[in-house]
Amino acid sequence: KKMASYALTLSHKFGVPVILRPVNRVSHARQNVPLESIKKRVEDPPEDVMRLSFEERMALLAIEVKENPPFMELILKEPPQTTFGILASGMAYRVAMDILEQFGLHTRIPILKLGMTYPFPDKIVDNFISKFEKVLILEEPDRGIEWLVETSHSLLGRRSGHVPSEGELNTDRILQVLAPLLKEMGFIDEIPEAPT
Known about the structure:
The chain is of the alpha/beta class.
């Protein structure tokens, strides 16, 4: 709801189309959503903005969003280790957090949550990645973030083969990806058995 409202505000302010890219689970979910008061917009986007070319408007939008990325959250701003971090978006973020909490690692492994991936906050992401030996990228429905970051041996995701290249990243799949990495890096002793 907040993202849709923000998207409409950006669209109006800069006179550009916006796209919301929901993940599969969100698209198939059903829930009552209380609406806030709806303001009728009768005015056009600002005239000085509309005189600019589309590319110039997108550049202005990128500057505004990159300076203060919305819907982004860094869990553990001062990480207690530099071995491993997670970069995630959408439901994959929530599932990864649940798994880390289950293992008692939510206070040891930092996660950078990206709620909005375009315009891409490259400086923030590059700064996060540079702090760790290995960074796991979890995103749905496809590689988006992975295409936007510099290819590096330290990145683990769909391109490296660590994350399945198709299908939904549900709890079981993320556990299958995360548990071996956590064991390999010494965060856990045993890989839990898959639920039957």
